[in-house]
Every structure is written in structure tokens, then in C-alpha cells.
Model the fold of this input.
Amino acid sequence: MSLSIGKRILLGFVAASLIVALLGAYALRQIATVRDMTDTIVSRDIGVLRQLDDLGNVSRNMGLVRRNAVIAVLTSSQGSGQRQQDDFLGGWRQNATELERLLAIIAAEVKEYRAAAISADRASAWIRFGSVIDEVSDSFRQVRSASEVQLQAVNSKDIATVEGRNDEINRLHDGLLRSIGNARTALDGVIAVGQKSVRDIYDASRLSIAITVIASVLLSVLVTILISRAVVRPLENVMRFVERIGAGDLTGRLERTGQDEIGRLGATLNSMAAGLADLARTNRAATADLNAAAAEIRASAQEQAASVEEQFAAVQETAATVDEITHSGAQISKRASEVIATAQAAAQTARSGLRAATDTAKAMDSIREQGEAVAGNIVALSEKTQAIGEIIVTVNDISERTHLLALNAAIEAAAAGEEGRSFAVVASEMKLLADQAKQATVQVRGILGEIQRGINASVMLTEEAVKRAAAGKTRTDSTVRTIEEMAARVEEGVQTFQQIVASTNQQQLGIEQVMGALQNIRQASQQTAAGTREVETASANLTELAQGLMALAERYRL
Amino acid sequence: MTAALDAKIVERRDALLDARAAALAARSAGGERAVATEGFLVCACGAERVGLPLASVAGVTPPIPCTALPGAPTTLRGIGAMAGTIVTVLDLAACLGLSAGSEDGHLVRLRAQEPAMALAVDRVVGIARIESRANVAADALGAGPVLGYVPPGSDRTGDVRDGFSILDLPALLARFPT
Done:
């Protein structure tokens, strides 16, 4: 069943056309058979009929020749020519030969046609015709022999014989003519039998064609039923599915799948149903969103209405505030005039402060110069202590050498023994002096270290003092600048307050315009309130619409 | 300020002079007694005090530049020139098993040695005279070439206050065969 619908329908049409073509061919063949039969019968029967006519004519000619011969004999007895008697016998014999030949032909034809007869009736009819022809032959032989004798008598002018035989011959000749008529009658029977058999063949053909037509009609009905089974039932399934989709049931799916058109249609419808389900789902979600959004719009509109009322109240409050501003503007103008007077006094004070600060800066400069001189002196002192340190190193070295010298003297004194005893005492004294000198240098070095530390601290303190003096000078300078800036600012402040007074006057004018604008705002607020009410109504309608849409979307079963 | 400094210096000078006068007075008290004493040259080697017999010492000199000998032990500092003769310089601290002494210490030249030898010490402290070796502790400390230990306060001259070890000089020099 994997054939496509088109192929199935094409197959049905091909089968029906084949049946019709076979039917036409069969009918044509039957018609050809009937026509052949008719042709055969007509050609045979007409041929035999023509030969029978020839036979009759020839026999009648024989009769005429014989009668003319008899008449000529009878008349020549009264004096007629000899020549005409010879002609009678020759003509008669010629006719007789012709007749015999015709008889032979007919007999052969009858034998042939009897063998190749179309039907048994025709064969028996041909047999009857053949017996009649045999009778004709017998009659002819009798006529021939009798006529031969008479004509020889004619030639011999035997009038008695001629007359004597004449009646018998006439009787025999009549019998011949009669038998020929019988033959014609028999041929008519053959023709009738032929017509009957042609009719029979025609009837049989008509019957068989009718049966074939009925069979082809039945076959066509069968093909139609098969096509219906193969095409219409799946289509009905598809239509039921489509009706379910139309009713809103998107849950079902067509189970039939295949490569034919119905299968492809089913697949397409399945994807369509899936797409519709998606669409319905999306639609449902969007409708829910729309419903929520409409509700939000409604809430917003209500809030807006409330805020418009608040705005209205605020505008009225603003109007009251602007009124107060108008009053306070006048006071500002008055106070600003007072501030101008105070600022001018402050500028005077700043100028005297500036003079004092300049004096302080000069004093700081002189302090710094003094400190720098002190630092220079201390540095010179430090250099002197360095020189003292070097001297101490020299003294230390001398004491060390003296130490060694005293030791060597003591060693030499010891080596000298008793004679060196007094020298040993001197050496001992020398060593003692060297050691004391060394101790003294150590103490001096300690004191010198303290002095240098004190100098360093003094230098640092002096430098710190110089730095602080410089910093004080810098600060005093900045104080001078600050006071100058302050005086300038105070001057600017005076100008600014004068501008404030002017601006306040302009402000009064501006506030009157603001009052007018507030009036306009009040009117606009009223219009906005009306518009908000309309928006609220519209959002309520929108909510109802969204709920209706949701009800519609609920129709789809997913 | 200068007045205060001057007063401080004067005070210190007076104190020095007084101390010296006192020392001289104290020494002359027992000087008349003829007691047989033995002199030692006391040297400092790190924290140790070592006494050399005064008879074996030729003199004391400041340090001289020494040339190190290749392959020599750490106790042999090298050889140097001293008053026209070549002197072998030994590091006494290294010989006693202490850590090597400083380069700028004193040199003690030894008497009657061939070749001439000198011992490098950190510093020569002074000359000590002890009455006899009777009160010398004979127990030698460690494995060094030391004959005994002189306790502190044994010096009759008062020049050396600390105690010291008496060096066994022949035993020390026997380690260096000439």
C-alpha cells in the first residue's frame, strides 16, 4: 500500500481503459467475423446463382437452336438450303458443351462449398443443391442424346424421325428447364440458410459483447471501490482530525505516516497542529500578560488620578508659597541693603589687618636671617672640634709608642740585672705616664663626642628655627594674600548684594508671571483629571477584552 | 657655658694629679725590701692573659708587614724584616688554640733564637713581678704549652691586676723545629 494516490488513480484509469480497449477489439473482431461470413455467403451464393442463370440461358439457347433446326427442316422440305443444317448441329453442340462445362463447374463448386460450409445447415443445404444439380445432369444427358439423334435426323432430312422424336424431346427439354428451376429453388434454400447462419453469428457476437460490457462495468465498479478504499477512507480520517482541530482539540495526532500524499498530508497536519498548539500556548500566555498589563494600566490610571488630585492640591499650595515669596522678596531687598553697609565696614577693617600682617612678615624675615648666622657660627665651632679630635689621635699614638718604649726599657733593665735596677724604676715611671696619658686621651675623646653631639643638636635646632621662621614668613604672606582676597571678596559681596537687590526686583515681576502660569497649570490639571478618568474607563474595557481573549484561548485544549 | 666647661676641665685635671700622687706615695712604702722576684711580660691574647719569662724576651715592637709562607700552618703567620734581620712571626693565640689574633697587635721578639722569632699578640699589657712560683697553680689548663696559673693580685709592682698563665716557651718552640 505504499503506492501514491496519483499512481493508484492512474492504475484504476489504466485498468478501465484496458478493459474498454479489449472490449472494442473484441467487438471489432466479431463485426469482422460477421462481415467475412456475409461476404463469403454472398460471393458464393451469387456466383452459383449467376452460373445457374447461365445454365438456364444455355439450355434455352439449345432449345431455340433445336427448334430453329426443326423449323428449318420442315421448311426446307419445301426447298431450302443445305448450309443452314450444318450450322444448327454445330451451334447446338457448342451450347451443349458449354452447358456441360457449366454443370461440371457447379458440381465442383458445390463439392467445394459443402466441404467448407460455415454450418451444418449450410452443408446439408449444399448437399440438397448438389442432388438437384445431379438431376439436372441426368435430364441434360437425356435431352442431349435425344437431341443428338433428332439433329442427325435433321441433317439427313429424315423428317419423319424429326417429327416423331420432337414431342419427346420437347418433354425432356421442359423437364430440364424444370430441374434447373428446382436447382434455383434449392439455391434459394441455401441462401436462406446462409442468411440464418449470419444472423446466428451476429446474435452470438451481440450476446458476447453484451456479456463483456457487463463484465467490464463490474470490473470498473471494482476498481472504483478499490480506489475509494485506498483514497477516500484515509481522507475521511484526515477530515475527522481536521474537524477536531477546528473544534479546538489540538492534543490529537494523526498516526498514519508514510511516503504517499496522505502520509505527507498527515505529517504536515501534525506539524500544523503542533504549530497551532504552540501558537495557542503563546497566545494564552500573551493574553494572560495582556490581562495583567491591562490590570496594571488600570491601577496606574487610578494612581495617576490620585496623583493628579495631589498635583492639584500642590499647585494651590505652590500658589500660596509664591505669595509668601513675594512678601519675603521685599524683605530680602531691605536686608541686602543692610548687608551692603556692613560689608563696606568689613572692607575698611581688612585694610588695617593687611598693614599689620605685612609688618609681621618683615619681622619673620629678620628672625630667619639671625638664625642662619647662628647656624654658620655653630658649623665653624664643629670644624674646630674636628681639629681637636685629630690632635687627640696624635697624642694617643704618642702614648702608645711611649708604652712600648717603657716596656723595652724595662726588658733591657731586666737583662742588665742588678745594674739596671734603677733604670727599671725609670722605665716603670715612663710606662705609668704613658698609661695615664692614654686614659686622659680616652676621657678627652668622650668629652669631645658629647660636644659634637651637642653641636649637632644645636645645628638641627637652629635649622629648625630657620625653617619655622621661613614657614612663618610664608604663612604671613599667605595671610596677607588672604586678607587681600577677603577685601576683594567683600567688595564683590557688596556688588553681588547690589545685584541681589536688582534681581529681587526682577524676581517680583517673574513671580507675577509664575502666578499666571500656576493658573494655567491648575486648568491643565483639571483637564488631566478628566483624561485620566477616560484612561481608567478604557483600561477597564481593555481588562474585559483581555478576559474575553483568555476565555477564547481556553477553548484550545493543549 | 665656657666658664662651666673650664671649671669641669680644671676639676678633672686636679683629680688626675691627685691620683698619681697617691700612687707614687703607696709604691715607695715597700720598695726597700729586697725580695727575690721573677719578671714576666704579660700579653693579652683575646680574653686570655699569658706571661712570658722576661729573660727570654728581646723587645716589643709595633706590628710589621709579614709575608705568608705557602703550605704553612695557621699558627705561623709568616716572615718579616725587623732591624735588618729576617724574623719568623708566630701567632700566639693560634698556638694556644684560641681564635687567630688581630693583625695590628704587638710583636714580642724572643731572645737567643736561631732563626730569630717573634710572637704576635693582641697587646702587651705590662711587666709583672711575682715573688716565687710557690703559689703558682701547677695544674695546666687545657692541652696548651702552659706551666701554671698566676692568680690575680700576685704582681708586686701593681702594674698587672689580672691573673695570667705562664707560657712554656721551650715546649711551644719545640713544635717548630728549625
Q: What stands out?
A: The mean pLDDT of chain A is 85. Residues 278-554 of chain A form one domain. Chain A has two domains: 5-241, 278-554.
